[in-house]
Amino acid sequence: MADRIVREKGLVVRHSVVELIEHWAIAISGLVLLISGFFQMPTSNRYYITSVPGLAWSGDFFVSLSVHYAASVVFIAASVYHMVYHGIRGDRGMIPQKGDFKTSIAVIKSFFGKGEEPPFHKYLPEQRLAYAGMAFIIAMLILSGLVKTYKNIYAPDLPLAVVLTATWVHNIFFALFLLAFLAHMAAIALKPNRPMVRGILTGAVSLAYARHRHPLWIGELEKGESPPFPAEHTPVEEMQRAAEEGAVEDRDLVREEVQRETAEPVTGNETAEN
Amino acid sequence: MSAAALSGLALPKAARAGDEKRLVTLIDLSLCDGCPGRELPACVSACREINRDRIPEVAASIPMPWPRKTIEDWSKKRDVFNRLTPYNFIYVHRADVEWNGQKRTLHVPRRCMHCDNPACATICPFTANHKQPNGAVVIDQDLCFGGAKCRTVCPWEIPQRQSGVGIYLHILPGLMGNGVMYKCDLCNDRLEAGKLPGCVESCPQKALLIGPGKDIEAMAEERAKQMNGHIYGKRENGGTATLYVSPVSFDLINRTMQRKPGQPDMQPGVKRGMAGTDGLGKTVLAAPALGIAAGAAGAFGWLSRRKSEVKKAGEDNG
After folding, report:
1. φ, ψ dihedrals at A148, nearest 5°
2. What's the whole-model pTM score?
C-alpha cells in the first residue's frame, strides 16, 4: 500500500501501481474469460453471433478455447500473485471484519435515504464482503478450470465424478461471476460510490471525498505523517513496524473508534478535523 | 490374453482382469464382406437391436429452436441404415477400388472411433460425454442438451442429433439445447456386464475383434505386415481405440467416400484439432507457479526495501 495524502493536489493515494495492475489484469482477463467462456457453449452459431463482424471466430471452439486459455494465464497468475504478494506483506484491509454484515445493511439503507452512513475506514464494510465473495468465486473458477485443463491435455479419462464436479462447479461459478461482475458495476454506479471510480483508474481519490466519507482512514494517514519519520514513509509501513515492535495494534484502536463514532453524525468528524 | 479371448468369447472379462483396462477394436477389411445375402450387415442389425429402445419417445410437437431454426428429427426415418443417425450407430460403406490393376470391393464398417483424446468428450460443456477408463466414449443421454458441439469438433462428425428428447425440454427448450446427441458407446453396458459389443459379437467373419490395447495394436501391426497393408486409426485424430487393417491404402478408400452428414470420410492422418490448444493449456497449468514466483519476488523485494529504509531512517534520527 502506498496510501498517502497529497495536499497540494487535494488527493489521497488509495492504490499503489501494483494494485492497479492487479485489478485491471484480473478485470480485463476476467471479462475476456466471461465472453470466451460463453462461447464454449454451442451458442455462437445458433444465435448468429458468428455473423457479427469481428466475431466469426466465436463459432470455432478451438479458437475460443485458445482465447479462454490465454486469458486464464493472466487471470490465474494475477490472482495468485495478489494472494501471495499481499499475504506476505500482511495487507489485511479487505479481509471482512466482525460486524461488517450488520454495518453493510445500514450502509445500503442509507443509499436509499434511510439513516446516515457511518464513517468509514479505507474500505466500506460491503467492499470487504464483496471482496471475500469475489475471491471465493475466482478461487473456485480457477481450481475447477485447472482440473478441466489438465483433463483436456493429459487425462480425458479422469474419473467421471471428478470431471462432472469440475464442470458443474465451473458452470455454476461462471454464472455467479457474471452476477458478481454486474453487482460490482451496479455498486460503482451508485452516486455515493462514484468518487471511488477515480481511485481505481488513477490510484487517487479526492481528499475532500475521503475526509467526508473515510475519516477513519484519513485520520490514520494523518497520524502517520507526524515525525519522527520523514514524510516519504507511508504511514502503513510505520504502523506495521510499530506492530512488529510490539506497539499498540492500530486496527484495534480504529475498530474502537468505529464503534464509538458510529453513533455520532458524520458532520461531527468534519468539524473535529479542523 | 488367450486366443479364445481375442476370438471374441471371454474377452472383456480377461481384459478387465489384466493391467490394461483400455480396450481397442480391430476391424479387418480383408475379412469384412458386407454380409452378402443379408438384408442388413450383421453388425448393423445387432447394433440396431441392442439400441432399439434407447431413445425415449420424441415430443409430439418438437419445440422450434430460436433463432436458428434447425430441427433434426429421425424418429420417422428409423429404418435408414446406410448412414449414421440417432437410430443407427454403425453402417457399412462399400468401396469399389482399383488396386494393383485389379477391381476390388471393400466393405468398411463405420462408427465412432473412440479416440484416445476425444475433443467431443473433453470439451462437452456439461460433461454429458465422457471417456471411460476402458476407452469407450459414452454420451449420457440424460445430461446432453443436444447442442451438437461434439459433432462440430469430431473430425468425422460422428454424433447425430435427435431433437425433441432430453433434458432441454424441461428447461428453456426454445432458447437452449435442441435434443440429444447419439452415437456408438462401444456397448459400454455390455462390456461392464462382461459381454462383447454387439458388432463384434455378431460378425460372422470375425472381421471385428476387441481386446486390451497393446494386444490388439500388436495384432493389427502383424496383420498389416502379413498382407503388406495399411492401418487407419492409429495416429488419426491423435490416436483412436479403433484400428482398421486393410490390404488397400486408406488414401484410395477415402477417395470412394464423399463426405456427407452421417457419412464420414477416412482422410489418412487427419489431425487432432484440439492439439493446437495444448501449448496454451500447459501454460495455464503453469500460471499458478508463475503467480507464486512473481508474488513472492515482489513481496520480498518490498520487505527488503522497507528494511533498508527503516535502517536509514534510524541512522538519520540517531
Report:
1. -65, -40
2. 0.88
